[in-house]
Amino acid sequence: MKMVPYLPAELIDHIIDYLHDDFRSLATCALTCRQWLPAAHFHTFGSVVLWPDTCKTFAELLAASPELALVVHSVEMRSLVHGSRVWQLVDLSFLDVLTAVTDLKLNTIRVADAVHEALIRTLLTVRKLAVDGCWFATLQDFAALASSFRGIESLAISFLLGDPNAAVVSPPPSLPASLRTIELGDLEWDRMPAVELLDWLGGVPDPQQIIGLSCHVAWEVWPAQMILGIFGSHLQHLELVVKTEVSLDRILGKAEFSLSQCTNLQTFALRLWLAEMCVPENQDLPWVPRLLSQLHCPRLYKITLSFYAEDMTDLRTLASENAVRQLSKAQYFALTALDWTSISATLARADFSALRELVIEGRGPKGILEAYIRREHPELHERGVVTLT
């Protein structure tokens, strides 16, 4: 009798891994044989996005196939309309069976009443929480939710408060000792109790436990400076994202913003949305070597620089009715406008000797920028640290 060819399970899983985003093919794999089922289910149901009108169907699927609950490790809950009350009408009892979820993202939903209670009561295994554009009644409500995940390691926040001036009846519950990274997203600092929020974040059991921080700056830079004052000396990984339509002199210079307290960094990422085109006359560009020069981190091995600006070859802004600025990643040839002399001099300092990689994120042909650095700054080129991605 002729033997049917047999593939080891590890090889089958590896093959199915290539189909991770092809849900039609994954469905076919799931129907092929039982051996293929676990890998197909892992990619199909490992990360789920829930809308108010899809929860009932998903709950019925879990009831029919309880084993799927253990496959779900990432859940995102979204709303079409910002702050809509529609989630209050959804039966969220199915969340009780999702005992393997480690990542939870709440996107533009109203977290109040039954939704707030259900999230606090369930999903106890969450390690990573991202709150993006959500609505909470008070800071106390948000703190109660975030602190309910006792094993949380990563917290990303961007939310609105219904009553930013609500009196604090009792201190918000503190964050767990497991927390390691914080991301302060696009927060409207003038519409919330900013100092109370930052004090709450700084009230972790041990500030030295926070090793990663991402700060988004739009109009107010003092919250970023305050949070760096709390965690800066212990941070290992820092990302600074500046999105503003005014000059950096008005945002960073006026407040005398500084990174000097960050002395233990291993990685640093600077992402700038520029108010003008990426040309030598742009007065924001000198801030790049200025910020880098403030770093004194003997363990710093990676720096990432990313720029978004108006494309000099893209005329969509002029063609749009209201001249809406079209920002995109700067082209590599435009990045010759940076003050590479100052950047090179800063990176040549003894306290940058551990640097192994200077990542420049851009788009388009790389040759012009590579040739420029090789010709004008041979000492930086010879270090072999510059990577264009």
Automatic annotation (TrEMBL):
Pfam families with a match to the protein in the record: F-box-like (PF12937)
Domain of life: Eukaryota
Gene3D superfamilies: 1.20.1280.50, Ribonuclease Inhibitor
Residues of the F-box domain: 6-36
Designated name of the protein: F-box domain-containing protein
